[in-house]
Amino acid sequence: MPVDMLAIAAHRDDVELTCAGTLLKAVDQGHTTGILDLTAGELGTRGSAAVRAEEAHRAGQVLGVTERRNAGLPDAGLHNTEESRRVVVEAIRLFAPRVVILPHPIGRHPDHRLASELGRDACYLAGLTRYEAKGEPHRPFKILYALAYREDPVKPTFVVDVSDQFDRKMAAIRCYASQFDDAVAAGEIFPTGQDLYSLIETQNAHYGSLIRTRYGEPFLTQETMQVEDVLDLGVKSM
For the whole prediction, is pTM greater than 0.70? Predict the structure, then answer.
């Protein structure tokens, strides 16, 4: 079940918060998508792992992903070990994506930072013919880092216009009632006095304003992006 785009995140609901609009847009454009949640979220303050599994299933249906899998790694206990790398390598070989979305390498939650490091290492190792893991060797072409809700001054490499997908993104987020109803903060999102859903809208509107659209999701690439036609560049300068 190869997919064109795979989002890897530490917890069920991380993908919805950071890049759900981009996954929805990919599906709208005829691409296939998948999600790999590294942990079950069993140590979360709200809800339970079983409840979050049901919520993640419903959210995945809203997002139209081809498949959503859970790696079964320990919540609040992610480590970039040989054992955990092999688990993620096997998932990457199974999904065989061209594009992988990872969390930003810096995060308030240790799992977010480690998910980024673990995911990047696994993307490389998955392409080694002699690396001992199940599946055929496969190395993704592009790695994107989701920049949503960053407070450190990191300028996005690009922002995806998700204006047409935003209502469905919010519907996917609202699937996690156990986590977000009556909440004012989550993950990398700090409280501002707004309820969480309003805060998400405000943040996505900010990213959208950077590219002169209603809503957007920001991403970072480590490599320089190529432009074929400078006369076709978007976003008005003045």
Answer: yes
